[in-house]
Amino acid sequence: MADMAIILQQAQRSLVIARKDIRIYYSKGPVVIFGILFPVFLFLSFTIGRQLAVDFMIPGLVGMILFFTATSISPIVVPWEAQARTLERLMSCPVRIETIIIGDILASFAFGVGISVLPIILGLFLGVTISNSVIFALALILAAFCFASLGNVFSIPPTNMPSTVNMISSVVKFPVVFISGIFIPLDQLPAWGQAIAYISPLTYFTDIARGCIQGRAHLPVAVDLLVLLAFTALFLVVAMKLHQKTMPRRI
Amino acid sequence: MDNDVAIQVVNLTKYYGELLAVDHISFTVRRRELFGFLGPNGAGKTTTVRMLTGVIKADEGGASILGYRAGSLKAKQVAGVVPEIANAYADLSGWNNLMLMSELYGIPASEARQRGASLLQDMGLFPRKNDAVKAYSKGMKQRLILCMALVSDPEVLFLDEPTSGLDVQSARLIKDLLRSLNARGKTIFLTTHDMDEANQLCDRVAIINKGRIVAIDAPEKLRMATSATHSVEVSFDNVVSPEVLVNIPGVNTVKKLGDKYRLYTANPGELVVSLVNYSSSHGLKVISLNILEPSLEDAFVALTEKEAKHG
After folding, report:
1. Edge-to-edge order in the sheet of strand B79-82
2. Where is average pLDDT lowest: A159-168, B62-71, B125-134?
3. Distance CA B64, CA B68 (A)
4. For chain B, which domains are there?
5. How far is A12 from chain B (nearest CA, A)?
6. Which of B16, B55, B141, B144 is the best mutation test for A, with the most CBs of A within 10 A?
7. How many CB atoms lie within 10 A of CB B20?
8. Is the pLDDT of residue B295 over 80?
9. Cα A168 from Cα B8, distance rounded (Å)
10. Are the C-beta atoms of B143 and B123 separated by less than 8 Å?
């Protein structure tokens, strides 16, 4: 019982930290640039002039925007706080390091989900239909949490320079976009291309989105969801274990 | 666990790579005590506070705060912290920073609002409570950080150099607040390298040097125990060279301070007689003559120098 009370107390404090992050970091330049503007321009540069169908473009656009927005805040909060000298104060509060990590992930998750609604509305306005909106919403929520957790993994190296973390995350994020069925559907990839695609969590969200919007999924939806869940658990465990070691070294 | 003990430190040790930053220190701070932790820069003060407040882990030994293991949620819950180099969130207002802290400590909103307003009033920040902290001066920021440490009404307060580099008014406000908190029964652990501050505020001080505690006692007792640093301050109506003064019986060292000389001695009474004899035999007139007790600073220097020689 006591353990459950502590879990609930820490969950509540994670929400407090997430709200603080939302107030402070949503308007920061790197978040807006890397989270919103970059994926939109990247997508436009690959799709304009290619005569692609709207129901092909929207799943890719949603996947890409979700991936970039959900990974835009969680990598930078910890180094930013260390640099701004607010981290030590936060760490001396009655919160666990896991509580801080979950709070940062939740802020990034909310940003990802909130911004991804825009391309979905755009798609609906352009006439696309979502065949199974419950599965689609579930996948969107799970993927946003998965990507936000991945973003937090990028901030594990104990550097206090947000720009260094942005560089690390960009090195991973850009290749991921190209191997995840955003621009080329999985069916059209050669076998070796598909093998690479399977190591990207974005592949599984894009596959569900294509299934719900285009009616053409490459994998069964249950497999996509389970793999997304497994990736989420992996990123969360790695983030929590390794931040335990590196966060005190930032002080 | 003794109910009168607020902070118990046993064999606390921290290494940074090869460097032994805190070397198996042990001490006890009683409840309602204002305890000073003095040391030169790099002595291990901040590392100790960080271990006590749970920001970093000790490599050996441990500590408890009101009986709770240092670093545990319960220990953090009963403590308020003003870190050495800490900032409030610059993008948030002073008020929102305070409310953030109260939420992280689980303080009910109505209680937090009441206590927050009262603290901001006491610290002279209430009229600026809705301004973003980035517009605050350094003194205002430090006063806000103190308010943030107090909004949970902690039983034990850790402050790491809270008045360092502040303007006189802010430093005085903070010192007055610490005195009144201590009078209301709060235990205060204050690290500082300011001897006057420790002397004015603390019931007891520990002196730490190179990671080791070299003395713990009341400031007055430490001062008096440093017998070698008694001194006599004298000025004459004419110029006298320090080389002459150092030859007067009983004088250990001579220091020139403006138009005065400070003569260090083990026996100030005898030295006064010698000085009077010397001045009358050399046709000099004594303008002023004072026997000085050793200051806490003298005690500090003597103790840390002794440690350096032994180390």
Report:
1. B79-82, B156-160, B187-192, B34-38, B204-209, B212-217
2. A159-168
3. 5
4. 5-223 (3.40.50.300), 231-292 (3.30.70)
5. 9
6. B55
7. 16
8. no
9. 43
10. yes
Cross-chain Cβ contact B104/A94 below 8 Å = yes
Angle between helices A54-70 and A38-47 (to 10 degrees): 150
Count of Cβ atoms closer than 10 Å to residue B184 Cβ: 8
| Pairwise CB contact (< 8 Å): B86 & A96 | no
Q: How many whole angstroms separate alpha carbon B76 and alpha carbon B264? A: 47
* R_g (Cα) of chain A, nearest Å: 18
Chain A contact for B6 (CB, 8 A cutoff):
no
Q: How far apart are CA B56 and CA A100, in angstroms?
A: 15
State which amino acid sits at residue B28. T
Domain ranges of chain A: 2-250
Residues in chain B: 311
Q: What is the DSSP string of B171-234?
A: HHHHHHHHHHHHHTT-EEEEEES-HHHHHHH-SEEEEEETTEEEEEE-HHHHHHH-GGG-EEEE
Residues on A contacting B at a C-beta cutoff of 8 Å? 6, 9, 12-13, 16-17, 20, 23-24, 84-86, 88-96, 248, 251
Nearest CA among B9, B75, B81 for reference residue B44: B9
Instruction: Enter the pTM of the model.
Output: 0.87
ipTM of the complex: 0.91
Residue range A128-150, pLDDT digits in tens: 999 999 999 999 999 999 999 99
In this complex, is the C-beta atom of B148 within 8 Å of any C-beta atom belonging to chain A? Answer: yes
| 150-179 of B, contacting A, C-beta below 8 A | none
